[in-house]
Every structure is written in C-alpha cells, then in structure tokens.
Amino acid sequence: MAFHIFISNVSQALTQPLPGIEAQLKMSSMKRIRELMTTIRPKNPIPSSVLLILYPYRKEIYTVFILRPDYGGVHSGQISLPGGKKEPSDPDLQTTALRESYEEVGIVPEKVQVLGQLSDLYIPPSRFLVTPIIGCMETRPDFARDPAEVEEIIEVNIRDLFSEKAFQIKRHKVGMGMHIKAPAFVVDNYVIWGATAMILSEFNDMIKAYL
Fold this sequence. Notes:
This protein has 211 residues and is an alpha+beta fold. 26% of the residues lie in helices and 33% in strands. Strands 1, 2, 3, 4, 5, 6, 7 and 8 form an eight-stranded mixed β-sheet that branches. The protein has a three-stranded antiparallel β-sheet with strand order 9-10-11. 36% of the residues are buried.
C-alpha cells in the first residue's frame, strides 16, 4: 500500500462529514448502548484525547497501541491508543494527544503531522470525553515506553486490524467477577474492545475504501 497516497486519502476523508456515533456503536456492547441511551452526560466531562498515529513499516501502514498496567483502575489492563486527560497547561486537545503520546511511548510531537480528528466519544465509567486525533509520521517512531503507564507497546498493521477475521465477539472481564460480551478487534491474540474499538470503528468506516 502506497503510504503517501493513503495519507492523502485520509486527509481528504477528514474534510467530509464523519461517520459519527452510528459507526462507533458497531463495536459497542449492548450494555454500553443502554448507557448511552439512559445516561445524561455531565455538564463537566473530563476533556481528553488520544492519538491514532499512522506510519510506514515493513512496506505496510501501521499504528500503535499501548497495554495499560493492571493497576485496579477503570481502564487498567486494557489496550488503548496513547493519550490521556487535558492538563491546564495544554492549549488544546491536539497538544494533549501529542504530549501524552510522547510521555507514554516516546513519539516526538515535532515529527507528527496532524491530519484531523474523529468524533468525540464519551466514556461513562471514567467521565472522559475523548477526542481522537489522527496523525502521521514519515518513518516508524523510535519508541520509548514509560513503564509506569505502559505495560507493552503494540504495533499493528492496519490492514490486519480491519480485516474480516479480526472482527470477533468476545467475553470481556469488567471487574468484580463480571463479564460482558462485546465486539472486538483481535490481532495476534491482542483484544481491542470498548472505547478504543469504537474509535477504530469510525476510522475504519471512513477509510475502508482505501485499504
């Protein structure tokens, strides 16, 4: 896949109306759908952002995820995009995504070309309102893991990520001995579900014609 042609197509797609919540909900559990239908979003959700970075590697196009340490929190032990909550010193959410990605996995902000952003996604358990930022780099990042925040750096070929076989219904542990069934993207035995899968679903809907 020609990297620069793909990036040009992504940039163009980001200027058009986004697929939005309809695409996000394709990767949502029934529990989450009920939450979205019945939960009133608080007036002061916690602004946050994540970075979906695209880069050439092994003649394909890759992105990167992080496995969070098992710390007992809402999102512990899950696979997510690098990112976090907006700090008072961040002028905007793009800065937040780039800062967090540098802190967590060593992606240098100055080497990232920001292409745009996807639809916001509210996460009831954490009260985070997440803005996904889409960016690209000319070369594979020189990763540096923060062991306090990242258990493992996971690089994934986006063609594999969005393949038909990657889409599966899985049983997920949600704490207190409880489990739910929800769609997931499964690549190399890594299971990506929840809010991250919902973000990826919108991105997939937007770019699937170009894969």
